[in-house]
Amino acid sequence: MPAGGASRRRDSKKATPRTPLTEGERRANHIASEQRRRNQIRNGYSELMNLVTTLTQSTPSKAVILTHAVQFIRDLEEGNRLLRKRIDGAHHELPQARLLSQSLAPFQPHSPSPPQ
Question: DSSP per residue over 37-102, as a string?
């Protein structure tokens, strides 16, 4: 850091001095920022409500939305766990099915070759 505690800018452009915001401008910025934050929350709840298929009320409370969302996620996790279990079982059964198929192949009737 240069003497005096000021840091240098990396580019060679001169920084234009900023004029401090008035109290009214600061307040307007704060209000706009808070409105954006609230809109993001509102949109998030709306999107969550659309994703959770168990919500049947037209305008459920935020607590109801969150409760249903948690249960919905738990149900999805359980469904995924069961599907993984079935896949693992199928992977285990596949080699046995191949062996059985190979051992039965000599006893299978051969279909005639198609006419040319």
Answer: HHHHHHHHHHHHHHH-TT--SSS--HHHHHHHHHHHHHHHHHHHHHHHHHHHHHHHHHHHHHHHHH
Name which of 65, 36, 64 is nearest 51 in CA terms: 65
**In the chain, domain spans:** 25-104
CATH fold of the domain at 25-104: MYOD Basic-Helix-Loop-Helix Domain, subunit B (4.10.280)
Q: Are the CB atoms for 55 and 65 separated by under 8 Å?
A: yes
Both tokens assigned to 65: 């939305």
- Residue 66's nearest CA partner among 45, 47, 37 is 45
Q: What is the pLDDT of residues 58-113, one digit of tens each?
A: 889 999 999 999 999 999 999 999 999 999 988 888 888 888 888 887 877 766 55
To the question of pTM greater than 0.70 for the whole model, the response is: no
CA distance 45 to 42: 5
